[in-house]
Amino acid sequence: MADSVRIGSERQAWHSQRRRPWLRLVRTDLEDLGPVSPELVLVDPPLAAAVRVTPDAVVVQNGRAGEGIQPTRRRDLERPEVGSGGDTTTTASYDTSDLLLEQHGVELELTTRGSDRSWRLTAARGEQIVVPDDGSVVPQQIQSLLRTVAQGRELVAVPARSSDPEIRRLEDHVARQRDSLVRHDVGARIASDPESLHQVRVAARRVRAFVGVAQDLVDADWAAEINDGMRCVGRASNEARDLDVLLDKLRSEIRSIDLRDQPATEALIERLESDRRELQRALVEALDSDRYQRLLERLGQPAVPAEGRRKRTLEKLAGRELNRLVAGVKRLGKRPSDDALHALRIKVKRVRYAGELAGATSGKPARRVIEAATQLQDLLGAHQDAVVAAERLRAVGYAFDRTGIAFVAGQLAEREKVTQGAVHDRFPAAWKDLRKQARKLPG
Question: What share of the chain is helix, strand, coil (3-state, %, to 5)?
């Protein structure tokens, strides 16, 4: 076992006269340690899925401290019902982390009524079997019946599936983005086609936008957990994607560079490609992290609704995003800064994704709003790409020449090239005017 930490000081002793081993905190893979204590399962199922207890240690799942997705709270896993006699019955759903049972139409529930606990397994055609709880994680009889469906995966408590159509719509949209994250994961790791990483970023942004728009409908902690995880994906991929865009532009423009300057352009591309390889290592590390893998599992599970009755629909929430955008544009002024335009682009994306989430694509006026938002988003995206590219080129230029003379000279030379181009564009009309006037001369 690696990475063990001793808890307590060497001078501290147990109250009993008999000396005992010090308690250690150990991180390792739990699969190697056998079943968990049945008592811990009864007290806290999520904790039972994360720890094991030995005579001299508390063992937790291997991973970096502070990095993991927080276990789902117990109240999010149980559905309480009050019977006619005043007795409270709670029901918790169990499945594999990737919901194999649900995918095959099978339901597994643990019901608690007072001190009585029982498992109910419902097959795809409605056949049921009820088995008294024997204190184990899942009774052996249930595990045997699920051998094929569960494929040997661990059965864990999962959030209950909401019947609210608005929540179900959110789940459907989030599930599609999760599929996109997984579908393009391999390509993003290979990194030979920049579009794969682009699709990973788009999916992460969409998840954040969907959850942000629906924040009034879902549990605040659940939303924060998802958004924080997606931000990590963004931080790991943003700079790499920006370099992909810049490199693609430079490779396409190198043919238009003066032949005398092409060797320098090739050296610049090589420098940027080296930077991109460094960023790729950080990206793969983020995709490999336990936190990201658990986040993907959480995205595949039901969303956790907010407590209380829903007050707004997704359609109204989408309208709120549009009103916020209009108010934001009014505050921009005539000459908005680069940062202000970037912030506006984020608001435009929210309006677009909010419309998609609310199902607005089915109505012609709303569909036109989404199309217009997409065009504005692309325009502002091109502006932001140019801003980021200029800053990257400035950094590289100053890295080669700390005085900045070469970088400034390059900017001035480019302005002169623009002037040359303008002259070329105006020359035909000027020549045409000269010939016209010349024909009016006598003789």
Answer: 60, 15, 30
How far CA 124 is from CA of 20, 22, 148, 330, in Å, comes to 52, 50, 13, 55
Tens of pLDDT along the chain (443 residues) come to 444 333 333 333 333 333 334 444 444 444 444 545 555 545 555 555 555 555 444 555 444 434 444 555 555 565 666 555 556 788 889 999 889 999 999 999 999 988 889 999 999 999 999 999 988 778 899 999 999 999 988 898 888 888 899 999 999 999 999 999 999 999 999 999 999 999 999 999 999 999 999 999 999 999 999 999 999 888 889 999 999 999 998 888 888 888 888 888 888 889 999 999 999 999 999 999 999 999 999 999 999 999 877 778 888 888 888 888 888 888 888 888 989 889 888 989 988 999 888 886 556 777 788 888 889 889 999 888 888 888 888 888 888 888 888 788 777 778 877 888 888 888 889 889 888 888 888 86
DSSP 162: P
Closest CA to 35 of 50, 52, 19: 52
CA-to-CA distance for 300 and 17, rounded, in angstroms? 52
Is the separation of the CB atoms in 295 and 151 below 8 Å? no
